[in-house]
Flavodoxin
Amino acid sequence: MSKKLVAYFSAGGNTAALAKKLAAAAGADLFEIEPAVRYTAQDLDWMNKQSRSSVEMSDHSSRPAIAGTKSDLAEYDTVYVGFPIWWYIAPTIINTFLESGDFSGKRIILFATSGGSGFGKAADNLRGSAVGAEIIEGKVNPSDSDIKALAEM
């Protein structure tokens, strides 16, 4: 039996709620990807081109610092990674997380929250940060039945 981890970044709480449901359904451990410096409402103002999130997302090489790493990644075969969709991709803090450990040989199943878009190029943009891992698009805004299906993957 494989060991599972649900790792997530949540800016407003929506992704966190789904991550907790998924972890319970999958019998998985839970890890919050926390920025070293929390995002404020002003930081998340996507209408302001000078806001922190806008600046980070305009520079795909941006790697916001995370508060802590998951040192026991070797224990997991499957890692669910959740995030809000920003500019049709994952926030660059997800790249920071994936680059903070060795994900080679692991299955990474993505799930996301979004106000209206799909995964866009999220999976493609994450592959270079998790070399040797299999990245699978799961669901955006998963329903309870979708969470059950994700948990069984």
About this structure: The helical segments are 14-26, 52-58, 92-99, 122-127, 144-151. Residues 35 and 66 are 4 Å apart (CA to CA). The beta strands are 4-8, 29-32, 78-84, 107-113, 134-140. Residues 14-26 form the longest helix (13 residues).
